[in-house]
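In the design runs reported in the main text, the only information available to the sequence generator was the tokenized backbone. The following block is the verbatim input for one such run; it is reproduced so that readers can re-run the procedure and compare outputs position by position.
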């Protein structure tokens, strides 16, 4: 499984770290505890050996005496059976011992044997060097120490797991809070498009490591906006500059009277004027900012389109009909932009529908519009290209420039709507548009 989210990767790494810590932390703590117990044991044995050395004295007759206090006698008594001692001369002969048999408590040179562990010190008493050894029977260790050492892993080990899980949950909340500026920046970035090139990523609250990236992205967006602006301006300027020469040329041809080829020239001029008009529409759509809360009456828009394009349909020996409710159908959108899109679809349908047939514009109560014709249809292999600018299929009339449907797509995208193309059972093409329904303006207010 691949984790694409930065937060999921961080959480995964922390889960692995917590799992490792949950295993090794109790082991480390257990080792530290046992090490500390051993250290305290050695220190205790060393102190006892030093205390015994302080009780060694040489009598006036030169003999050695070990004058133990009552508490020391009790500590090394056979009844207690936990601590033992012996005092040896350099030759290893035992001079004093807590054992009843008088033997050494540890083999010569050893600091431990089996469950017996102890410490050794050297003292000079008079002219004699003595070795004092004390030992503890670990089989009779202090009960509290045994419980701590034996039960530490079972008790403390399980305590560390919920602690680490709590730390993991805290880490997740911290990382979510730290990544919140990135989530806000991604939401802003999702709004950037050809119609909204003015949006920039917010830098407030952004981590210092991410701020250079945000700055670089904003600078790149500045350059892209400048490029878009220059392109749109060029398109608009070129279209404006072409309109006047075309109008003058058309007027001159019409004033010269009928002549050979004049009709063809007028048709060519009309076609070029149509292209220029569509280029101006594209330039205007690119610069128009749509208010996402604006509401339009889809029924009124379609009625206006049908009334405007009806003369064009009749002039071509075809008809156009409006179907659907007579009451308003409110959607989120700009009425002017919607009229352009539906007008282009209706005009395109009139061009390709069969002679003496009708184009239907149907309105649905849920904010849908269907535009149907009785033409040759659109091949499935071409449906992915029909909305591209200047694209014309091989089986299409070359009268148009391939801009009408691209204008429709631009309007649909700006409105966050959808458009689908399908074939009719009786022949022809159906364009289906679906917009976001909106409440009536009075209810919205």
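Verbatim output:
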């Amino acid at each position: 499984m691949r984790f694409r989210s930065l937060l999921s990767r961080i959480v995964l790494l922390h889960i692995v770290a917590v799992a490792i810590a949950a295993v090794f932390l109790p082991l480390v703590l257990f080792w530290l505890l046992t090490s500390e117990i051993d250290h305290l044991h050695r220190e205790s044995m060393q102190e006892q050996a030093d205390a015994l050395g302080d009780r060694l004295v040489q009598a006036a007759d030169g003999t050695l005496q070990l004058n133990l206090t009552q508490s020391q006698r009790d500590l090394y008594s056979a009844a207690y059976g936990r601590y033992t001692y012996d005092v040896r001369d350099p030759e290893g002969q035992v001079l004093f011992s807590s054992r009843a048999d008088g033997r050494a408590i540890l083999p010569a040179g050893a600091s431990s044997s089996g469950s017996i562990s102890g410490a050794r010190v050297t003292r000079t008493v008079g002219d004699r060097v003595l070795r004092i050894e004390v030992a503890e029977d670990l089989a009779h260790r202090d009960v509290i120490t045994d419980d701590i050492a034996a039960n530490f892993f079972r008790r403390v080990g399980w305590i560390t797991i919920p602690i680490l899980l709590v730390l993991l949950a805290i880490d997740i909340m911290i990382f979510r809070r730290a990544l919140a500026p990135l989530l806000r920046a991604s939401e802003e970035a999702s709004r950037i498009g050809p119609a909204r090139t003015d949006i920039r990523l917010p830098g407030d609250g952004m981590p210092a490591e991410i701020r250079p990236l945000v700055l670089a992205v904003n600078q790149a967006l500045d350059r892209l906006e400048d490029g878009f602006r220059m392109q749109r301006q060029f398109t608009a300027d070129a279209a404006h500059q072409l309109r006047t020469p075309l109008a003058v040329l058309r007027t001159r041809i019409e004033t010269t009277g009928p002549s050979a080829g004049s009709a063809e020239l007028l048709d060519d001029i009309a076609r070029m004027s149509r292209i220029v008009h569509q280029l101006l529409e594209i330039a205007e759509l690119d610069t128009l900012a749509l208010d996402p809360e604006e509401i339009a009456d889809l029924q009124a828009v379609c009625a206006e389109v049908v009334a405007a394009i009806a003369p064009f349909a009749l002039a071509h020996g075809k008809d156009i009909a409006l179907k659907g409710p007579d009451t308003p159908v409110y959607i989120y959108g700009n009425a002017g932009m919607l009229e352009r899109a539906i007008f282009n679809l209706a005009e395109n349908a009139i061009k390709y529908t069969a002679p003496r047939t009708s184009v239907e514009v149907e309105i649905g109560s849920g904010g849908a519009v269907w535009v149907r014709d009785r033409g040759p249809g659109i091949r499935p292999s071409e449906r992915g290209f029909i909305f591209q600018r200047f694209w014309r299929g091989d089986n299409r009339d070359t009268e148009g420039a391939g801009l009408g449907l691209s204008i429709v797509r631009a309007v649909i995208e700006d409105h966050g709507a959808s458009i689908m193309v399908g074939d009719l059972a009786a022949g022809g093409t159906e364009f289906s548009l679906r917009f976001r329904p909106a409440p009536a303006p009075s209810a919205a207010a």
